[in-house]
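User: Fold this; tokens only.

Assistant: Input:
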Amino acid sequence: MNFNSISGRFALLTILFVLLAEILILVPSVTNFRRDYLETRLERAQIASLALLATDESIAADLESELLENAGVFNVVLRRDDIRQLVLSSPLPQPISATYDLRDDSWGVSVRDTLQRLLSPRPEVIRVIGEPVRQAGQLIEITMDTAPMRAAMIEFALRLLAVSAAFSLMTALLLNLATQRLIVRPIRGVIDHMIAYAASPEDSRTIITPGASMGEVRDAESALAQMQRTVTASLKQRERLAQLGQAVAKISHDLRNILTTGQILADRLEESADPAVRRAAPKLVGAISRAVNLCETTLAFGKAEEPQPSLTLFHLRPLVAEVIEAEELAGETAPEAAVEFIADIPAGMRIRADRDQLYRVLANLARNARQAIEATRRPGTIEISATEDESHWCIRVGDTGPGLPQKARENLFQPFTGGIRKGGTGLGLAIAADLIRGHGGRLDLMRSDSEGTEFQIGLPREISRL
């Protein structure tokens, strides 16, 4: 029997609990057996003494010895009419060591005497006092050897334990069979379905059909079926998106080359002698630049998944300074909407992350904030702050821009649907969220209203061991 299985552990627990219950029953049972044994000796001694009293004469020594031997005692004393009378007697092999009065024997005292007798292997002579049967006198008193009684008690206890062990094994076997049929077999069926589904998750025929009779197993089957349907649908959608992505990547690659050539030609239009052409040239260059940027971003998103982050411990303040410096240079092209950057990073604060990937995330958030403020043509502020506690590092990027549109907030981290500015693709935030998830953290939108927008990056201190 495999005790590492469910049925094996059920069987083992059953055996242990049954044995424990039998042990708790054993002591009272042996105690009752001891009392019955002593009362039986008193009855036999009374019968032997009555045989003598009926004759009113003395009996031969060999007959007296035979009566005492059959009764299993050394002496018999009867008290009748307040007279104590030694009826049968024989020499005692040793002095009397203890006296037990069964007329006033409490259960606790009886248990104590039973345990003492079981733990004492040395034979002793004891005196036992009890009431005669059928009111044949006031009391009857015998002396007897403890060795036969102890042997009988041990034999009774062993028989009881043997029966208990057989009962435990039979119960464990029946429980094992019941567990196999009612619990293990349905669970094994669920496991087999999971293995079959893992081998071919795209095949809808491998999705489990709930049918177990047990409510808990049926609930597990229902949850598994729902998960399998969701995964199968996601895999089919991902396959279609992958095919679409390959086609878009090819188109974007060729379109980028065409637009790059058009961008070079558009740059020359600025040197045209026609004033109308010169005025239209910057707009044309801007439109082509946005198209090229869209193609490059789409190609980047369509590539293989981001590599696993290379975690290192570094100071956060210099990284934030690099992000702010780059965005300040980019913002010089829009002097009518001056953007002020504020860095609130504790001195000496160090963080464990992939430095390049975190730079990309912060640069994306800062750039989106800067472009949102510039679109209003009013001055604004962007603040990057950081805090830490025992379990997490927290980085916040907030701005005083116009806030995100409702449509953008609904699909904020979805590629091609969560763009936060006109002409945007929504890939920036999708990639940023994916990079943070790769660190085991989260990128969340904390607020977005008319007073501005704030994003929060949460990174765990503990390195996952999975």
